[in-house]
Specification:
alpha/beta; 8 strands; 47% helix; globular
Length: 301
């Protein structure tokens, strides 16, 4: 039996950052630098994930991902860890993206389970291990079966956690029992990848969150963690409860759609989304404003 890890290799509060676009759909690199700076300096982020799901990685080109990564690395310097999302359903392509991210200055890589292919667990394991062997950077595995169609099963996570460069897992599986078993057996640092599960996962050993709501309430998500670990459980429950309208509100449709809508409403860089996603409707924005106001988000309360 392993002892649960209390080490957070990339700090405790990371936001899966949107990729700002200009009105014409081109990448807004100045906006990306400004947003990254805001998230680190104002929202207490110890790290940022770029080119993840919320960063619209399926619709950004490899060259755009490299440009974006360089800009974010330059913007935050040594004030935060920059984790590059390099997930793809083609292992060899993922290796190439990982190499490009390494050259562009990433501190770590986040690798999602191959999607659409629905590989067997041996293929899932070989995918992660192949990428780990091809890079010198630490890797966060990303388990989100509702998007990929394939979970990283407990025995697979236990197996791949033995690799020295697989250093953490982002959990958006919603299976607290499975999380506990992997944490117990491996000590692998565990990040909540589903904001509604932030506090429940802390209770079974998670070290922090890789969050979408962190765009709006990263400082308050961190306050929940601090209260819980300080033994002020009632305070943590109350603080977390206050955030539920944000957690649910930004996912009334695809999270990036409403996250960008909310950032635009705040006057922060975000811009439109790229097809096949579509921008939030006025009706959706009105509901979002009420959700964010209910949680006391600045600019909406």
């Amino acid at each position: 039996m392993q002892v649960t890890s209390t080490t957070a290799p990339f700090g405790t509060m990371l936001t899966a950052m949107v990729t700002p676009f200009n009105a014409d759909g081109s990448m807004d690199l100045d906006g990306a630098a400004a947003l990254a700076t805001y998230l680190v300096d104002r929202m207490r982020n110890t790290g940022l994930v770029v080119s993840g799901t919320t960063g619209e990685s399926p619709t950004t080109a490899d060259e755009e991902k490299v440009e974006l990564l360089r800009v974010v690395v330059d913007a935050v310097g040594d004030r935060a860890h920059v984790v590059a999302g390099v997930g793809n359903n083609d292992t060899l392509h993922t290796v190439e993206i990982a190499r490009q991210a390494t050259q562009a200055g990433a501190d770590a890589l986040m690798v999602v389970t191959p999607y659409y292919n629905r590989p067997p667990q041996e293929g899932v394991a070989q995918h992660f291990l192949t990428i780990a062997e091809a890079t010198d950077l630490p890797i966060v595995t990303y388990d989100i079966p509702k998007r990929t169609g394939t979970a990283i099963e407990t025995e697979t996570l236990v197996r791949i956690a033995e690799h020295p460069r697989i250093v953490a897992n982002k959990d958006a599986k919603g299976d607290l029992e499975a999380a506990q078993w992997v944490i117990r057996r491996t000590g692998l640092p565990w990040y909540s990848g589903d904001d509604a599960m932030n506090l429940p996962l802390l209770s079974v050993g998670a070290v922090g969150a890789i969050s979408v709501a962190g765009h709006f309430v990263g400082d308050r998500i961190e306050a929940v963690r601090e209260a819980f670990l300080a033994g002020r459980v009632a305070d943590a429950i109350r603080l977390n409860s206050d955030l539920l309208p944000v957690y649910s509100g930004i996912f009334r449709t695809a999270g990036v759609i409403l996250t960008k809508a909310g950032l635009n409403e705040q006057g922060l860089p975000a811009g439109p989304v790229r097809l096949p996603l579509v921008n939030a409707t006025p009706e959706q924005i009105a509901v979002l404003r009420r959700d964010l106001a209910e949680s006391g988000v600045p600019g909406f309360a």
